[in-house]
Amino acid sequence: MNQAEIHEFLVHFFYKRQATIELNERGLLKVKLTEELDQKLMNRPFYWQYVKKLGKQGEPMSVTFISDESKKEEKGEWIHYGSPRLEQLFQMIFEEGRYAELYEETNQDERQALHPWFICNLKVRYQGSYTQDELVSIGVYLINGTMRFKMMDEILQESFVNVIPDYCYKIPPIISHNRAIQMINQEISLRINQKSSAFEQESMELYQKELNMTDHLFKTREDEDTEVLQKNIEEQIYNRLYPKVQLKLINCGLFYLTENRSKHMMNIS
Amino acid sequence: MRIVIEDQDLQSLSQNLNDYQSSDWDTFRQAYQLSKMKMNNKDSLTCMQYLPGLELMSHQLDAVKKVLNQMHGRAILADEVGLGKTIEAGVILKELMVKNLVKKVLILVPSSLIRQWEIELQRTFYIPATSKHRSYPWEAYDICISSIDLAKKEPHASEILKQDYDMLIIDEAHRLKNPKTRNYQFVKQIRSTYCLLLTATPIQNKIDEIYYLMSIVRPGLLGDKYSFKKNVKQERHEDSHAIQTLIKQSMIRNRRSDTENDWTKRDIETIFVDFTEQELEFYKQLESMNAYHSFTTLTLQREICSSREACYQTIRHSNWDDDFKNDMMQQIEQLPHHSKALKTVEFVKSLNDKCIIFTEYKSTQIYLQWLLQQNGIFSVTFNGKFKKSKKDWMIQLFKNKAQVLIATDAGGEGLNLQFCNHMIHYDLPWNPMKLEQRIGRIHRFGQTKDVNIYYMVLNNTIDQRILNLLYDKLDLFKDVIGELDQILSQLGINSLEEEIEDIVKESRSEKEASIKVNHLFSVISDSHVEERDIANESS
User: Fold this and answer.
1) Do A72 and A116 lie in a common domain?
2) Most buried residue, A45, A233, B268, B320, by most Cβ within 10 Å?
């Protein structure tokens, strides 16, 4: 996200969450927050606590966000990529968007079936001799267990809605969520083990070398320090260098796809 | 397969799924896209895109990359004064935080620097670091800044040792190099995955010191104590560089001369002052006492060249017999205002710009402040004994209101005063390192103007002798100044200051002293050529 895109992002973010846009010009946005947004963003719990105690209607704040360099001097919050405020908004999106049950939008006026897919988006983090992230998006067809990688990228441009469209009916899943999650876990682990031997070996060597150094140190030394110290050091080395892969969930959800798309997904996997 | 796969997220997902509310497609998709944007690549510095206001100098960028990629997050940052070690540490910390490898951080710095670290981390790096407050326990902090002096005391020490930190940063880490001190013993026990030690002087006296710093950062890298000592001795004979190569594995040391940055110019001017006859008479009288005790004499001479007050204090607390003492004290009381001080005030007036005055003596500091005030010049004082808040306040005052900051050397380390570009050395320090430390306060990263340095020197006194003996020759080792400490240690010299004091004391003529100093300096600058890569710019 570059500096020019931030304004658009902000407008979209606040508009979508029902804040009142009071001023919207290039790189400068003044919004009146809703009560919910105020509580989440403005960090004034006491205010809201008192208001509630007194049984009154609180007054959400108006905030000005500036994202254009030339307007930096004006009164308001300067927002850039990496600023804590923007991070806070990102976190809200992550929090809100971690689960979904959605139906593919379709305009046909014939009766049609929608097929259940479980989609799971993960950040796979390799950590050892280096740190590297990989984005993995997997879909599991909950009827026969077909698995599809890069799922999200396939459907990113499509439209989904929260309520089942007219004339559509759901095919009930045969495979449970939990089973799907298990399958995903197994498959990912398998793939990680298959392709990360270079990473593993590199990290392992580094880890072992560092460990030997410590070992040697404590073997030859009689003068000071204890087992505790050695244990601390070994732990530190393990944390930094031992090859580890962390599966971090971004979000997941139950998606009902039209028959065509569902077939298409199965064919290209 | 020995790889460990941490899949707690997926494990717990099965249980929690029923509690989740469905979001809309737009938000779900946005969460995915934002995550994609925040992916880390193994060779790139992810955090820099979060810090658009920060521009790193090339040596800083190199240092950061090296610490992260080759040293795996444990290192000694030993750049020379003013090259921005704090910035390097900040970027490394930020990167590890962005990558989610670090959450809980302990930062131990001299108490005078706590506030500065706090501000720097918050403003430059958007890292929510806070200084330790007495009413909150250590475990309540994610990113905590404190002083080592507080931290090592009970009950704090045992509380800290119970914590598992992700990162430990220690500024001015040369305070750790004596293994017998509480500082060292304490720090060694702190549990932390990543660790940065910052010091401009990794070796001050003996090469052993680097051993102890290293044993905190990478225990075992230099072997055990005995084999290390043996190797050092052996290397001296064989002219090998094995130890240096090892040290470089975990230490970054950039020198001013290596950096590509264009440093602003440094102009040095000496201002000569004459004692009044009355003062000179008293000075001569001190000189004639030489026979009794040369050390005291030298001290008193240096003091009277600074202020009557400094000299008076020493005599008052001396163990001389009362008559003599009272006589001397009375004589001092008769003296007029100090010539050098008057000249300095006059000079500050004509300067009409912010300036820092450094003095060696507290009494002089107070006297100067009074004298400036009599002349309508607002000044603030600064010394190491001030509380943190008072120091902050003084610097703020200096920045916004006062024309002059009068400082003693103590407590000066780490101060950033680059908004000022005049510095007056009211007393000349006898140790060139000290001079460099002082000048580094203003001649550092961020200084945009040429820097003006002034020496105040009293004609025909010890001031002038030192100027001739030492300062005129400083050019000889201006390239060495950063590594002076390390060269001295290799020569077995504990303190350059004492060495020079001895020369001045023991030489029977000016000529002899001059020759001795010449010899000392040529040894030092020769060593420079031979020894300069012990901890050289990292390969």
Assistant:
1) no
2) A233
